[in-house]
């Protein structure tokens, strides 16, 4: 099963993709995560990406398309995958569509998580990530047992540098301008599944699985 997760930053794409990864035994591929990893490794890709990410801007399409292409060629992607954070521009969606045609791997669904604007600012400001294992917490809905420490590994919880208010607003503006058309693209292809992204993690997850059941 090949699925892309759509929705504004903080809609819960990563959290839901992780749940789907466990259920369907296919990898969750987060382009943001790949880029953050590259930054912490100090690689050439990381240095290039950091110039855009620190300002809340999207990294250029050719860079991201190359990353996704290379990742999809890995053997664990043969049974399928859940893409999170990609495609994010109309250019990416078109090139991705062509790539999938060339690979003869049609997409099964584009799951769009719908959340209200005020919800996503609230969620992103409260998000904390373990600097060691990458586990994600929300200070209001899923706080760690001990303040500032990861439940799984005890690592230090940090706030992503792009989860601060002015960068959040910039990221939402980018979403509004560039990502909106993507939904229309997938509507035309009959692949869009719009899902109410509000409620608990379990409630949203049940709605997604219900939609994917028929694929
Ligand atoms: P995310 O973790 O998905 O919120 O992504 C964090 C940041 O990584 C974004 O604000 C962008 O700077 C960059 N990024 C991730 N995915 C993409 C993409 N598909 N296209 C361009 N930039 C991306």
SSE topology:
Layout: E1 2-6, H1 13-24, E2 28-30, H2 31-41, H3 44-53, H4 61-72, E3 81-84, H5 90-103, E4 109-114, H6 117-125, E5 127-130, E6 136-138, E7 157-158, H7 165-188, E8 192-196, H8 201-212
Parallel strand pairs: 1-3, 1-4, 2-3, 4-8
Antiparallel strand pairs: 5-6, 5-7
Helix pairs in contact: 1-8, 2-3, 4-5
Primary descriptors:
single chain; 215 residues; alpha/beta; Rossmann fold; 5-stranded parallel beta sheet; 3-stranded antiparallel beta sheet; 8 helices; globular; binds adenosine monophosphate
Q: Nearest-angstrom radius of gyration?
A: 17 Å
Q: Give every kind of bound small molecule, once each.
A: adenosine monophosphate
CATH topology: Rossmann fold
Q: Runs with pLDDT <50, length 5+?
A: none
Q: Please report which band the strand proportion falls in: under 5%, 5-15%, 15-25%, 25-35%, 35-45% or over 45%.
A: 5-15%
Structural class, please? Answer: alpha/beta
- The CATH architecture is 3-Layer(aba) Sandwich
| Count of DSSP H/I helices | 8
> Would you state the CATH class?
Alpha Beta
Walk me through what this model shows.
The protein contains 8 helices and 8 strands; from the N terminus they run βαβαααβαβαβββαβα. β5 and β6 (136-138) form a beta hairpin. It starts with a strand and ends with a helix. Strands 2-3-1-4-8 form a 5-stranded parallel sheet, with helices on both faces. A 3-stranded antiparallel sheet has the order 6-5-7. By secondary structure, it is α/β, with parallel strands linked by helices. The chain has a single domain (2-115, 176-213), classed as Rossmann fold (3-Layer(aba) Sandwich), CATH 3.40.50.300. The chain has helices at residues 13-24, 31-41, 44-53, 61-72, 90-103, 117-125, 165-188, 201-212, and strands at 2-6, 28-30, 81-84, 109-114, 127-130, 136-138, 157-158, 192-196. It is globular.
């Amino acid at each position: 099963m090949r699925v892309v997760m759509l929705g504004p930053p903080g809609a819960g794409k990563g959290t839901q993709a992780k749940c789907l990864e466990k259920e369907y035994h296919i990898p969750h591929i987060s382009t943001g995560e790949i880029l953050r990893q590259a930054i912490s490794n100090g690689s050439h890709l990381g240095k290039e990406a950091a110039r855009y990410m620190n300002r809340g801007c999207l990294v250029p399409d050719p860079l991201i398309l190359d990353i996704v292409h290379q990742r999809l060629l890995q053997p664990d992607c043969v049974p399928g995958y859940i893409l999170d954070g990609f495609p994010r521009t109309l250019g990416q969606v078109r090139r991705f569509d062509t790539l999938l045609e060339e690979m003869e791997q049609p997409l099964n669904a584009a799951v769009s998580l719908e959340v209200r604007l005020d919800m996503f600012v609230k969620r992103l400001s409260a998000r904390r990530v373990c600097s060691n294992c990458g586990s994600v917490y929300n200070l209001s809905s899923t706080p760690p047992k001990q303040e500032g420490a990861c439940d799984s590994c005890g690592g230090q919880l940090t706030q992503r540098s792009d989860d601060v208010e002015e960068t959040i607003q910039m990221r939402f503006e980018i979403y509004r301008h560039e990502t909106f058309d993507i939904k229309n693209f997938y509507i035309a292809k009959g692949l869009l599944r719009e899902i109410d992204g509000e409620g608990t993690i379990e409630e949203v997850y049940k709605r997604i699985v219900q939609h994917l059941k028929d694929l």
